[in-house]
């Protein structure tokens, strides 16, 4: 069965690094399929229309995927649409992992500064009304703004939160450093591990 993986990343500064990471994965078994690399003009066109159009575009991109790999540069953790891709991945039950790509050289031969783990900037918490997504914003946890409905306990592949204290997604997911941990050779195994955690 094909392993369909969605790659989430901050486009402008990290697309070169993301391509390197993605291409090192797809050179291995032919049944590996990525659906996270959109033409930038399509993405920008959707963004210009309105938020709902872009959200629909991203949800469609996540269809039929089983893993979401967050390729993380310096400011990826702050990006609204990366957060939305993470949120929708949680809702649909995708395996999640962070791969830091700051140490990968861009087309000009430059590396960048390591940024925070985006999966540590989002989490879940429980209220009497249900389980909700949270995001770290302005130095505090707040209810996630781009998806405000409750999440069904059965949709979570990890133990659901038991209180109003936010549980970071990173507590249930693994993170890696592409440059330091030989991502060229190992990213396929990292993705398979994320899929295994959710039994996908």
From TrEMBL:
Q: InterPro entries attached here?
A: ThsB__TIR-like_domain, ThsB_TIR-like_sf
Query: What SUPFAM superfamilies does this protein's entry cite?
Result: Hypothetical protein MTH538
Q: Where do the Thoeris protein ThsB TIR-like domain residues begin and end?
A: 6-105
Q: Which Pfam families match?
A: ThsB_TIR
Q: What is this protein called?
A: TIR domain-containing protein
The species is: Rhizobium sophorae
């Amino acid at each position: 069965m094909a392993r369909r993986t969605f790659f989430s990343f901050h486009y402008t500064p990290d697309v070169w690094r993301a391509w390197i990471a993605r291409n090192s994965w797809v050179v291995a078994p032919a049944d590996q399929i990525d659906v996270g690399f959109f033409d930038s003009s399509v993405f920008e066109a959707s963004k210009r229309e309105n938020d709902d159009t872009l959200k629909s575009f991203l949800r469609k991109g996540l269809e039929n995927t089983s893993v979401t790999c967050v390729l993380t540069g310096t400011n990826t953790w702050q990006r609204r649409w990366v957060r939305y891709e993470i949120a929708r991945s949680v809702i649909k039950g995708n395996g999640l992992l962070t791969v830091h790509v700051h140490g990968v050289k861009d087309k000009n031969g430059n590396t960048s500064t390591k940024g925070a783990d985006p999966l540590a900037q989002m989490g879940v918490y429980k209220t009497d009304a249900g389980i909700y997504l949270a995001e770290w914003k302005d130095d505090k946890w707040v209810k996630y703004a781009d998806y405000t409905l409750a999440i069904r306990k059965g949709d979570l592949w990890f133990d659901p939160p038991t209180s109003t204290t936010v549980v970071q997604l990173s507590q249930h997911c693994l993170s890696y450093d592409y440059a330091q941990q030989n991502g060229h050779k190992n990213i396929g195994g990292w993705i398979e591990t994320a899929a295994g955690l959710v039994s996908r």
